[in-house]
Design brief:
Length: 324
């Protein structure tokens, strides 16, 4: 038997509970994993509270991330005793996820735990850190150098993006709706803090050129304004939609400033790109930063903490110790 955050659907709606499950309940997969740590992401919080239709099948074990040790394997690349991590690939949506003490997954989804990180640190990074690094790689693909804006900077993706970009030598402008946390952003390396209100209201189709590139975790009107104020030849990387799915943007920045809008998806990222992102995280992310961004909870606390995350009461990352 093992414990898991289980999402179920009934006539009364979708709800989650901490359940005890049997090994025989696990879905098909070529590798079994004893999960030691997971994380609680915004998407997970939406799923377990029933606030959005994240789970695509029921019952569903929540959790888009996991770290643990292979218990049994039919996959040629992974053997028993190997430390591994998994993020994305429909975990917690179409396939039972990592907010559990056991998992069974497709071995192609697994990445060996990088030597630079412990399982706990890997989950402090998780999907958020992988996404942040993929955004940095996209900026580098675009040849962006100089001042870079990060929106939603107090979130998991945003905070890690600030830290990575600052370590790489960029001057980072951090946008946040929580100015009381500005000192924390400066500690991560932000050189300037701006209020999210500057970007959240309708603006001009083409604004004053302010930054060479941007990582936008918000979407909606914010993304439109970010594009409008990006310098000639810049790249804006879009990876979030908490501000809305619609982008009321103008074509002006694209044809008058040769702007590139690059999308990042961490769910189906090809294995080679995923491995490169984790390698770069090992080289370009200061491990001490993870401690300042991380809150640890037990599996039994996930359902209560999910509401706080959706209410904007959480800064940075939430690591889940599945043993408690």
């Amino acid at each position: 038997m093992f414990k898991a955050a289980l999402i179920e659907r009934s006539d009364e709606g979708v709800r989650a509970r901490l359940a005890e499950l049997d090994e025989g309940d696990l879905p098909e997969g070529s590798v079994g994993v004893d999960v030691s740590f997971s994380s609680l992401n915004y998407k997970d919080a939406l799923a377990v509270t029933g606030s959005a239709p994240i789970a695509r099948a029921f019952p569903m074990v929540a959790g888009v991330d996991l770290a643990g040790v292979v218990s049994v394997s039919d996959h040629p690349d992974h053997g028993a005793g190997e430390a591994v991590i998994a993020t994305g690939y429909g975990l917690g949506e179409r396939h039972w996820g990592g907010l559990a003490q056991r998992a069974r997954v497709d071995g192609d989804w697994l990445v060996p735990l990088p030597e630079a990180f412990s399982p706990r640190q890997a989950m402090a990074i998780g999907t958020a850190g992988l996404t942040a690094m993929l955004c940095v790689l996209a900026l580098e693909d675009g040849g962006v150098a100089g001042e870079i804006l990060v929106t939603g900077a107090n979130g998991g993706v945003g905070g890690l993006a600030v830290a990575i970009l600052a370590k790489l030598g960029h001057r980072v402008i951090a946008s946040t709706g929580r100015p009381q946390l500005a000192d924390g952003l400066r500690a991560l390396g932000a050189g300037e803090i701006i209020d999210r209100a500057e970007l959240s209201e309708p603006g001009k189709p083409l604004g004053k050129a302010r930054w060479a590139g941007a990582v936008d975790t918000v979407g909606g009107q914010t993304l439109a304004n970010v594009c409008a104020s990006t310098r000639y030849g810049g790249t804006v990387v879009a990876c979030g939609n908490v501000g809305g799915m619609d982008v009321p943007a103008s074509v002006a920045p694209f044809i008058l400033r040769a702007l590139t809008l690059a999308g990042v998806d961490s769910v189906q990222t090809p294995h080679r790109r995923r491995m490169e992102a984790w390698r770069r995280l090992g080289a370009d992310l200061d491990r001490s930063v993870l401690d300042s961004l991380t809150t640890e909870i037990g599996l039994t606390e996930v359902l209560d903490k999910a509401g706080d995350l959706l209410d904007g009461q959480v800064r940075g990352r939430i690591v889940v110790d599945t043993s408690r």
